[in-house]
Amino acid sequence: VNKLANLVGVTLGPKGRNVVLESKYGPPRIVNDGVTVAKEVELEDPVENIGAKLVRQAAAKTNDLAGDGTTTSVILAQGMITEGVKIVGAGANPVQIARGIEKTAKALVYELQKMSKEVKDSELVDVAAVSAGNDYAIGNIIADAVSKVGRHGVVTLEEGKSSENSLYVVEGMRFDRGYISPYFVTDGERMTVEYNNCKLLLVDKKINSAKDLIAILEDAITSGYPVLIIAEDIEQEALAALVLNRLRGSLQIAAIRAPGFGERRSQYLDDIATLTGGTVIRDEFGVPLHKADKTVLGTAAKVVITKDSTTIIGDGTTQEEVIKRVTQIKNQIEATEHEYEKEKLKERIAKLYGGVAIIQVGAQTETELKEKKLRVEDALNATKAAVEEGIVVGGGCTLVRLASKVDAIKQTLENDEQKGWG
């Protein structure tokens, strides 16, 4: 635990130092990101490595939930494990200690929520810059991106072709549906699927057999284009066939479940079809799935899929259709009297019309580019977290204030439960 935490800990705070990581393929990487450093630590001693894996898991979980603050998680985990081992060695009950930690953590989260305040637009620059190592060039471009697409809009990153950072906004949408199988992943380090100039097959029903997809998949293999399948669901037999072809390298493919349920799912699929210029396959009318060919496919300039979300970036050819679709949805909002339905319709407009802000990260060298992209990613995640959860005083001040609350919380715990915070 200490070996990993001491290495990761050097990156903590505004005076945190960088770590150089050796790469088996390509140049070495310079990083200032706790979870990235933690992923590279493998210890020879198998028992020591178990401890390192436990702490690495804490960093990874923090990264998944918040996208930043991973080094702080590692340092806190180190302190709790070190003190916990001492207390258990002195005869305390480990089960009660764990229970006390859980109760105290819950109480401290409540105190933290009371301390937090809503972030103002003028503060977004500072939030992003601090997380990027006080780089206000990064802070400004992230704040600019958020202002262009709105606080709940979609902001993504990509590697630029010049030494300067740049920002542009394109048609696109994001929704909370990740890949069905991790075997579709194209970037093993970030665990994402990324395809450029991707075709989309939209199916408003379950796909039961891979035989129904033969015509489209054969054309994709022959022409060399990637395909994203968005369907109600994909049965195991069909999914296994897709995964097998993906692993063989013969097919660039990914599949996700369509967002929403019932009628709302159908509406979302129609929205995606409008954005991409595709046709939704349905049982009730139109071309049946087994007879569908490339003419029903939509087109996206880029798709990015994580385990939890999908981002579709349009190719700019469907602007008029998108405007018409948004007008239709606005008319539906005026016609309905139910507030819940109005909110869902407004949500569809935001996804369809809000656009996607793309930050292109520029640098002089590949090594600098990788390091800079990690910092921009941290800053972007910190900004998103600030918008969703609010902000607190930094520099460790909030941790000190929370520490002063522990004594009062301890009085509500029993016996050994208190020793986890003694």
Characterize the structure shown.
- The chain has 422 residues and is of the alpha/beta class.
- It folds into three domains: 2-117 and 397-421, Orthogonal Bundle (GROEL, domain 1); 121-171 and 360-389, TCP-1-like chaperonin intermediate domain (GROEL, domain 2, 2-Layer Sandwich); 173-317, GroEL, CATH 3.50.7.
- Helix content is 49%, strand content 16%.
- It has 14 helices and twelve strands.
Question: How do you describe this structure in short?
Answer:
With 422 residues, this protein is an alpha/beta fold.
CATH superfamily of the largest domain: GroEL
CATH architecture field of the largest domain: 3-Layer(bba) Sandwich
Shape: globular
Query: Number of helical runs?
Result: 14
How many angstroms does the end-to-end distance come to? 21 Å
Over all CA atoms, what is the radius of gyration?
24 Å
Q: What are the low-pLDDT stretches, counting only 5+ consecutive residues below 50?
A: none
Give me the secondary-structure category: alpha/beta
CATH class of the largest domain: Alpha Beta
The residue fraction in helices comes out at: 40-55%
CATH topology of the largest domain, which one? Answer: GroEL
The overall strand count is 12
Order of SSEs, N→C?
HEEHHHHHHEEEEHEHEHEEEHHEHH
Largest sheet: 7 strands, mixed
Integer average pLDDT: 88
Number of domains: 3
β content, as a range?
Answer: 15-25%
